[in-house]
Amino acid sequence: MTAVRSAARTPVPPVERPGVLVLRLGPFSHALHIRRLLVSAAMLALALGLLTLSLSLGDRVIPPERLLGAFLPDAPRMDRLVVTQWRAPRAVAALVFGACLGASGAVFQSLTDNPLGSPDVIGLNTGSFSGVLVVMLLGGTGVGVLAGGAVAGGLLTAAVVYVLAYRGGLQGFRLIIVGIAVSAVLTSANTWFSVKSSLDVSLRAAVWGAGSLTPVRWDSLGMVAAAAAVLFAAMPLLARWMRALELGDEAATMLGARVERAKILLVIVGVALTAIVTAAAGPIAFVSLAAPQIARRLRRTGSFDPAGSALAGMVLLAAADAVAVHAIPGAVLPVGSITVCIGGLYLVWLLLREGRRA
């Protein structure tokens, strides 16, 4: 018996196979998938390239070689103003917010085991927007207050969807159907509140509801980035739970996971990632839907990976924002309108693809 327990405690080294690099340090070893590393590096490079493009282009074109100099104290005043105060908050926000939305989409698609199980489809974006709208109706204006309303609205919506969908366990398809129904109710309520509220609140709600990075400044971006850093710090543990839950509740229980507790914590983190973005920029749809699927196909992983999905979300939102800013000369579109157009086409393709499989 002692020998069996000792063998059970001995780490099993990763199996060497083509495309996998095994790193060993004494008794410890770790497998690195070369394709996943290369794809991740390519997505990161593309995201940084889009960041450089967003900082460079505009009415005042600033060459890439002058961008770093614009952050120095002795930089030309106009270059410093344009880059650090006008363009950089929006460009950096596109990367941070895209990462949050991509990771949140991975969490919920893993929980539901369905490509449609993203926060924008099951109503969590709408719930976060409802929380912001209620705060606006009560007279709240600060970024922190709006963020609290968004998180509260998203968590309350998630709780309602969870309770209505729970029948001796949480099944992905039931969660999606209930979420779509709750989202429809909340959308109607949001429209009614917007119509009945004052003109000022209605205009603010309309701008917020379009999903735009234009109002983002360093203070609001700093709050979102700080919250995102805390949430992403928990991602390695959450990713382990996600892989276990994707095997099924019984298998996850045999592996030592507390299934319902893990699901609740995953829902809370996923809602928080979506809510902090909604509080700062409004509901930005379809990034959470598309990013996990793109990352999964490019990296060829069998499970949903929050890290890869975050990188894909960064690229998607940064590209959509570049289109929103530069597609029409003299006009800046809400980034939410671009993601809705792209996401709508993607959703049609996804539905047709799933229909052919069925």
Summarize the helices and strands and which ones pair or pack.
Blueprint: H1 2-9, E1 20-25, E2 28-33, H2 34-56, H3 77-112, H4 124-137, H5 143-165, H6 172-196, H7 199-210, H8 218-233, H9 235-245, H10 249-254, H11 259-281, H12 287-299, H13 306-326, H14 335-357
Antiparallel strand pairs: 1-2
Helix pairs in contact: 2-3, 2-13, 3-8, 3-11, 3-12, 3-13, 4-5, 4-6, 4-7, 4-11, 5-6, 5-11, 6-7, 8-11, 9-11, 12-13, 13-14
Question: Which key features would you list for this structure?
Answer:
mainly alpha; disordered N terminus; two-stranded antiparallel ribbon; ABC transporter involved in vitamin B12 uptake, BtuC; 358 residues
Could you walk me through the main structural features you see in this protein, from its secondary elements to its overall organization?
- It is a single chain.
- The chain has 14 helices and two strands; from the N terminus they run H-E-E-H-H-H-H-H-H-H-H-H-H-H-H-H.
- By secondary structure, it is mostly helical.
- The protein has one domain: ABC transporter involved in vitamin B12 uptake, BtuC (Orthogonal Bundle).
- It has a two-stranded antiparallel sheet with strand order 1-2.
- A hairpin with a 2-residue loop joins strand 1 and strand 2.
- The protein is globular and about 65 Å long.
- The N terminus is likely disordered.
- This is FecCD family ABC transporter permease.
